[in-house]
Design goal:
Radius of gyration: 28 Å
Number of helices: 21
Oligomer: single chain
Strand content: under 5%
Shape: globular
Order of helices and strands: HHHEHHEEHHHHHHHHHEEHHHEHHHH
Helix content: 55-70%
């Protein structure tokens, strides 16, 4: 029994996971997908003009003293030029040397590379589970997906903390406002019946509480009762939703701005514009997929005159939903560079706006503005990619932990087996007449078997309490909620940039 358990825990999945972690660590300085995304030569930044160039455009002679000399001599008056000078910024491709000075570049590179390797481990695990019956093994691909979600949340928390520590209070107020709005919306969503929003939270929580009670009695706590009610759990879930809503406030606002600029930048390419609009509306599609009257019921009984036809059966709808969510995330990843280039073009856009104004401006202010836009490139990239990672890897974890299948109608019924029936027992060790060396080897083997047996019991107990039915409800709701926050913040961003900024 111990040998079989050891194979289950230290099988090929663990070997591939350790190999992926080792390759990611060793290959990061040499081959990085995150570096390729920014530094492959397809993105162009704008260089800030020098003081000599600005003086030449303004028709004045460059002062002989440098900026440092003027500062040392106590001259605080900066070099100024007219705002309406004919300034055109010079383009340059983003290279690896430029990327090293970007803010949060190391965090960006690590997260994106980890997401790439997590995808590879998940795909291997899916192929392995289709070939071998791995129902008794721990799905390490799902663990990689869950870790990617947690690391993505941590990255968003770091960015939000940066806004909170800002000297200006506007960013902090925006995060708090979206967090409070998300709390109200989440409490409304959590009281909607399953007939309209089919997350499966009710059945998932019921399964969790029942299995916890059975597990507690099996451990000897006969009179133990769960002090947590479903209302308490939902209030905690609503607080988590408010936190996620605050995290996704600025990513949604930034997405709206880059979307508008990307569409305008590709005004002569209608196919690219269609893809950009589809990627922007993809969270709306994710929202509709869990609205039962608009998705499952409609496809199963689509009205056709006086009759109704079945486009997709109810059994096949779960698999179709997974494919649609993954395809929408893939589309958003495919148009990433259009959004990033649209952000970098803000430098030239700001210069064109400056030319329409009157008065003078300090040369250092022009240089700072152009440089600052490029320095925040990785921040903008994280704000674009991390929400996509949250939806994508939550969906992949939902597929693996919820016992769904990519093939229509092939998913298994989620198990609700009580914890009592799933706990394994360690195989007895038969004593025998052995010499000292053999006894030492046998003792070491027994220790290994005992350790594996305890780990097996822990994993079996965890799987018996956190059943696929529970994961189906929780992960489906979190996937839907991330998409909802994206829709709320991005639509508000469209309204802000299209109407409020124009006025």
């Amino acid at each position: 029994m111990g040998v079989r358990n050891r194979k289950a825990l230290m099988g090929i999945q663990l070997v591939v996971s350790l190999l992926a972690a080792s390759v990611m660590q060793r290959m990061a300085p040499h081959c990085s997908f995150a570096r390729w995304l920014l530094c492959s030569g397809s993105l162009f930044r704008f260089k800030h003009p020098s003081e000599g160039e600005l003086c030449a455009l303004a028709g004045k002679q460059m002062p002989k003293q440098t900026r440092r000399d003027r500062r040392q001599n106590g001259e605080s008056k900066p070099l100024t030029v007219p705002k309406d000078i004919d300034l055109h910024l010079e383009k340059a491709p983003v290279n690896a040397l430029d990327a090293l000075v970007l803010r949060f570049f190391l965090e960006y590179q690590w997260l994106v590379d980890f997401a790439v390797y997590a995808t590879g481990v998940f795909l291997f695990t899916e192929c392995y589970c289709n070939i071998v019956d791995a129902s008794k093994e721990v799905n390490l691909g799902a663990i990689w997906c869950v870790l990617t979600v947690l690391f993505s949340v941590k990255t968003l928390h770091t960015l939000m903390r940066h806004y909170f520590l800002s000297e200006e209070g506007g960013e902090r107020s925006v995060c708090l406002a979206f967090g409070f709005l998300s709390l109200l919306v989440a409490m409304l969503v959590l009281v909607v019946r399953e007939d309209y929003l089919e997350f499966g939270l009710e059945s998932g929580f019921s399964s969790l509480f029942d299995n916890l009670e059975v597990f507690a009695k099996q451990q000897g706590y006969a009179d133990w009762s769960i002090p947590v009610t479903k209302l308490t759990v939902k209030l905690g879930l609503a607080a988590l939703c408010a936190y996620v809503g605050a995290l996704l406030a600025f990513p949604g606002l930034r997405l709206a701005q880059t979307h508008l600029d990307a569409v305008q930048m590709n005004s002569g390419r209608p196919l690219v514009q269609i893809l950009l609009h589809l990627s922007f509306l993809s969270p709306v599609i994710v929202l509709v997929l869990w609205v039962k009257p608009l998705a499952r019921d409609f496809l199963a009984n689509a009205p056709m005159g006086k009759t109704s036809i079945t486009i997709v059966s109810s059994d096949a709808f779960d698999s179709l939903r997974l494919w649609v969510v993954v395809a929408s995330c893939a589309l958003r990843l495919a148009v990433t560079r259009y959004h990033l280039q649209a952000y970098l073009n803000l430098a030239q856009k700001w210069v064109e706006q400056m030319k329409k104004e009157v008065g003078r401006i300090a040369a250092i202010d022009i240089q700072r503005k152009v440089t600052r836009i490029f320095c925040y490139l990785t921040v903008i990239t994280l704000q674009y990619l991390v929400p996509v990672f949250l939806i994508l890897f939550s969906t992949l974890a939902l597929k693996a932990l919820g016992d769904f299948s990519w093939r229509a109608g092939a998913e298994r019924t989620p198990g609700v087996t009580p914890a009592l029936l799933l706990l394994p027992t360690a195989a007895p060790v038969l004593p025998g007449g052995l010499d000292e060396d053999e006894e030492g080897m046998e003792d070491a083997e027994e220790d290994i078997q005992a350790t594996v047996a305890r780990l097996s019991e822990a994993f079996a107990a965890l799987r018996s309490v956190l059943t696929p039915l529970f994961f189906r409800g929780l992960l489906a709701f979190l996937t839907w909620w991330v998409a909802a926050c994206q829709v709320i913040s991005s639509l508000f961003g469209i309204y802000f940039h299209q109407y409020l900024m124009q006025n």
